[in-house]
Amino acid sequence: MKNIEIKEYPLLRSGKVREVYDLGDSLLFIATDRISAFDCILPTPIPDKGKVLTDLSLFWFELLKNIVDNHLITADISKYPEQLKKYADQIDGRTMIVKKAEVLPVECIVRGYLAGSGWKEYQKNGTVTGIKLPDGLLESSELPEPIFTPSTKAESGHDENIPFKKMVEIIGEELATKVRDVSMALYSSARDHAKNRGIILADTKFEFGIADGKLILIDEVLTPDSSRFWPLDVYEPGKSQPSFDKQFVRDYLSSLDWDKEPPAPELPEDIVEKTREKYFQALDLLSK
């Protein structure tokens, strides 16, 4: 399901993967099967990807609700407004009705391992978002302890990693400290659960909002689109790791003579199927 149009409610936001509709006193989140890479939405969807993202988020919201409240109202379509029920064949399993919140303008990233932009910065400076790390770490090394590395939320283009003191300037010291502490607690709990299921949670991104004066966890949480999940049984520092996400897509696109600018190329059937399998594998290992 690549595009879903709900005529009875205004479309509030259309992102790379999600459509958000304004239901009045709440929001409808729809996770489509769209997939993006290198900041481009690809023309080829990954079948049922949106259902995996929704199922995983619902699982984590329930597991972690003792740490912080979240924005979920219901994902039970029988409890949806009547105007939405006629779209059941399109939206069932890939949607949730959530609370409205004042979204914090920062991405809350926790890293337990050295990968991605963190690895690139470490190679240059021995730091990640200005946090000094021990010498001699390898790509994919486990860090001595997890670190909190926030970033800005870019309206377009790339998010920008920022030091914690910059986050304090943006949202205030008290709220920034609370968000950091909650993010670290969420990561630690999820990391331990994942490890018991044979998966390394290398890093992840959380988003928060304020509703009724309280900090709540919003958006998706701990999915392959917002996290790096690695299989524990083949983990080996010193190289990039196989992952339960769209790495097949990135690798395929990197092999092409494509300048990483829209329009993106179509994906072949085998890449689509391998990527779909990885998403479902993550869901089964983590939540079943």
Task: Give me some keywords for this one.
2 domains, alpha+beta, 288 residues, D-amino Acid Aminotransferase, Chain A, domain 1, globular, 7-stranded antiparallel sheet, Phosphorylase Kinase, domain 1, 5-stranded antiparallel sheet, 16 strands, single chain
Q: Could you walk me through the main structural features you see in this protein, from its secondary elements to its overall organization?
A:
The chain has 288 residues and is of the alpha+beta class. The protein has 2 domains: 11-100, Phosphorylase Kinase, domain 1; 103-245, ATP-grasp fold, B domain (D-amino Acid Aminotransferase, Chain A, domain 1, 2-Layer Sandwich), CATH 3.30.470. The chain has helices at residues 49-63, 82-85, 88-91, 116-125, 164-171, 173-196, 247-254, 269-287, and strands at 11-14, 18-22, 26-31, 36-37, 40-41, 72-74, 95-99, 102-103, 106-113, 127-128, 131-132, 142-148, 151-152, 199-211, 214-218, 227-231. β2 and β3 (26-31) form a beta hairpin. α1 (49-63) packs parallel to α8 (269-287), α5 (164-171) crosses α6 (173-196) and α7 runs antiparallel to α8 (269-287). The longest helix has 24 residues, at 173-196.
